[in-house]
Design a protein that fits this description.
By secondary structure, the chain is mostly helical. The protein has helices at residues 3-28, 34-39, 45-54, 61-73, 87-122, 127-141, 144-158, 174-208, 211-218, 223-234, 236-252, 255-260, 266-275, 279-307.
């Protein structure tokens, strides 16, 4: 029981270390001098050298890496070159938008996808299955920003139910804040729900062909109970995998949606920091997102043992 989670945790730690090396190295070799960009092209070489020294950019590469990773371990992400504030403050401010948005979108995609996957698998080859999977295929093919534009036109411009963009902040009231996140969350959830529904259907079709499902039906257990209590649980491993990947994507890959809806989230922060050559912000935020992806995948791996008891005794 202990060997399985211990092995997964060790793999996660090694992956995290390797990811930090890759992120640091890739951003170090990106062309462009942050000090030169901040001071402008008319700045003298002495001014640029002085600013590079203040920013610690003239220190040896290994020392800068160790200083950066040491700070990350203490949740000290450094000081933003552009905003002149601690990066952790910027992250906390933007995470207050991106994290609820990702959680709402994941909840919506799950609520939509699981029943659709169950319905399609239980009616494999039928008209309902064809319509559901055809719709899901359309959802996979259409980009989320296109869904966003359609939702803005329908619910904001035509019906005036929700604002077309912007975020008033949580201080304006939870109801108003959630209302501002409704359309972005739905635009993110629809393509993810389409993917998750197809995965759930495939996993359920495989499970429904097992002997124990036929045995349960032969015993007279109602069809709904067989689907929800027996088939769905045993089909959850691939579904959980996709859900973990989707949450990481929803948190880290919302740059387009956040720009469409003018949301001050992590995606826009990274986009602005890249344009402003604020490398400390880019490195810290990207590493934070990588860490979240690794931790989420670790939790998904550990959840396999809860769903499938056979994994608990594996090394």
């Amino acid at each position: 029981m202990i060997a399985y989670p211990a092995r997964r945790i060790a793999i996660a730690i090694v992956t995290l270390v390797l990811a930090s090396i890759v992120v640091f190295t890739m951003l170090e070799i990106v062309p462009g001098d942050p000090a030169r960009i901040m001071l402008g092209m008319n700045a003298s070489a002495e001014q640029v050298a002085q600013l590079r020294h203040q920013m610690g950019l003239d220190a040896p590469l290994l020392l800068r890496y160790l200083h950066w990773t040491g700070g990350l371990l203490k949740l000290d992400f450094g000081q933003s070159y552009t905003y002149s504030v601690p990066v952790i403050d910027l992250v906390a401010e933007r995470m207050a938008v991106s994290l609820p948005l990702a959680l709402i979108a994941l909840a919506l995609s799950t609520i939509i996808a699981i029943p659709v996957g169950l319905y399609s698998a239980s009616r494999r080859g039928g008209t309902g299955d064809t319509i559901a999977m055809g719709t899901a295929q359309l959802g996979v093919a259409v980009p989320n920003f296109w869904f966003a534009l359609l939702l803005i036109y329908l619910f904001a411009v035509w019906l005036h139910w929700v604002p077309a963009g912007g975020f008033p902040g949580w201080d304006a009231g939870i109801g108003l804040a959630l209302k501002s996140l409704a359309l972005p969350a739905l635009a993110l959830a629809l393509p993810q729900a389409a993917i998750l529904a197809r995965v759930a259907r495939s996993a359920l079709i495989e499970v429904l062909s097992e002997d124990y499902i036929r045995t349960a039906r032969a015993k007279g257990i109602p069809r709904r109970a067989v689907l929800w209590r027996h088939a769905l649980r045993n089909a959850m491993i691939p579904v959980l995998t996709i859900m973990g990947l989707q949450f990481a994507f929803l948190l880290a890959g919302t740059i387009i949606i956040e720009n469409v809806f003018y949301l001050p989230g992590l995606g826009r922060l990274v986009f602005q920091a890249i344009n402003q050559r604020d490398l400390i912000v880019v490195k810290s935020v990207v590493m934070l997102l990588v860490a979240i992806v690794i931790v989420v995948n670790l939790l998904v791996d550990l959840s396999y043992a809860l769903v499938d008891p056979r994994l608990r005794g594996r090394p």
